[in-house]
C-alpha cells in the first residue's frame, strides 16, 4: 500500500489514539524500514483517573510507541488541554505547519473528518489545512466515527496485531475503556481482514492520495 512512502507522520489528538487507530500498521511500516513519526497533542492530564499521576499518559505513550518500534526521538509531544482543541485552532495549525516544514512527510495519517470527538475533529480539520498538498489517510475509531469510508485496507499478520495489543497494554490508565479490550482489537482486525480475503487488516479512509 505504501511502497512509495518512506517517511510517515501519525497525528494523534491524544496519547493513545494513534495506537488504537493504526498501531498494527505502524508496527508493519517500521518492520518494512519506513521512518515513522508520532505527534500527539494532549496527555489528557485533566481526565486521568485519580488512581494515577496526572502525567501518567506521557510515560505510557513512550512505552507504547517504543513497543511498536518508534524511536523516542520520533515521538513529538504537545501539551494542549483535553477537550479544548477547538479554542486553540490557530496554535495547533501553526504546530502542524512547523511539523510539515521540519519533517516533510510522504504520508500523513490522522483521525477521520467524520470523527465526532471535538479534539479529534479539530486535529483532522487543521491537519487537512496544513497537509492539503500531501497524501493523507484517516484511521478508524469505530466508537467515534459517525460514518467511515472503508476505501483503503492494510493487510496484516498476526504478529502485527499482537504487537498493537501489547502496545495498548502499556496504557494501564486507560484499561477501563471498553475499546481497550484485546478481544475487540483483534476482532476488529479480523473483521477488516475478512472484508478483503485476508487474515487481518486495518482500514483507512483515503483523504488525499498523491502519486
Could you explain the architecture of this structure?
Helix 1 packs across helix 5, helix 2 packs antiparallel against helix 5 and helix 5 (158-168) runs antiparallel to helix 6 (182-195). Strands 3-2-1-4-5-7-6 form a seven-stranded mixed β-sheet, sandwiched between helices. It has one domain: LmbE-like (Rossmann fold, 3-Layer(aba) Sandwich), CATH 3.40.50.10320. With 211 residues, it is α/β, with parallel strands linked by helices. It has six helices and seven strands; from the N terminus they run βαβαβαβαββααβ. Strand 1 (7-12), helix 1 and strand 2 form a beta-alpha-beta unit. The model has no long low-confidence stretch (mean pLDDT 97). It is globular, with a radius of gyration of 16 Å.
What layout of secondary structure does this protein have?
Elements: E1 7-12, H1 17-31, E2 35-40, H2 56-68, E3 75-77, H3 89-103, E4 107-111, H4 118-130, E5 135-139, E6 152-156, H5 158-168, H6 182-195, E7 200-208
Parallel strand pairs: 1-2, 1-4, 2-3, 4-5
Antiparallel strand pairs: 5-7, 6-7
Helix pairs in contact: 1-5, 2-5, 3-4, 5-6
Number of contiguous helices = 6
Query: What average pLDDT do the residues reach?
Result: 97
CATH class: Alpha Beta
User: How many domains, as an integer?
Assistant: 1
Residue share in β-strands: 15-25%
Backbone shape? globular
Query: Cα-atom Rg, whole angstroms?
Result: 16 Å
For the largest beta-sheet, the strand count, sense and barrel status come to: 7 strands, mixed
Number of strands: 7
Amino acid at each position: 500500500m505504501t511502497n512509495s512512502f518512506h517517511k510517515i507522520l501519525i497525528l494523534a489528538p491524544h496519547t493513545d489514539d494513534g495506537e488504537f487507530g493504526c498501531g498494527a500498521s505502524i508496527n508493519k511500516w517500521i518492520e518494512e524500514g519506513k521512518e515513522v513519526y508520532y505527534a500527539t497533542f494532549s496527555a489528557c492530564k485533566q481526565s486521568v483517573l485519580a488512581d494515577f499521576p496526572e502525567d501518567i499518559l506521557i510515560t505510557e505513550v513512550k512505552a507504547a510507541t517504543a513497543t511498536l518500534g518508534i524511536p523516542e526521538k520520533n515521538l513529538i509531544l504537545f501539551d494542549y488541554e483535553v477537550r479544548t482543541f477547538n479554542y486553540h485552532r490557530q496554535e495547533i495549525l501553526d504546530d502542524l505547519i512547523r511539523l510539515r516544514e521540519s519533517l516533510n512527510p510522504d504520508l500523513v495519517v490522522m483521525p477521520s473528518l467524520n470523527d465526532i470527538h471535538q479534539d479529534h475533529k479539530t486535529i483532522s480539520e487543521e491537519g487537512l489545512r496544513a497537509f492539503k498538498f500531501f497524501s493523507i489517510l484517516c484511521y478508524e475509531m469505530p466508537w467515534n466515527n459517525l460514518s467511515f469510508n472503508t476505501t483503503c485496507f492494510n493487510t496484516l499478520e498476526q504478529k502485527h496485531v499482537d504487537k498493537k495489543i501489547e502496545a495498548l497494554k502499556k496504557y494501564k490508565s486507560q484499561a477501563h475503556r471498553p475499546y481497550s479490550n484485546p478481544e475487540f482489537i483483534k476482532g476488529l482486525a479480523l473483521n477488516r481482514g475478512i472484508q478483503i480475503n485476508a487474515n487481518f487488516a486495518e482500514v483507512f479512509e483515503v483523504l488525499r492520495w498523491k502519486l
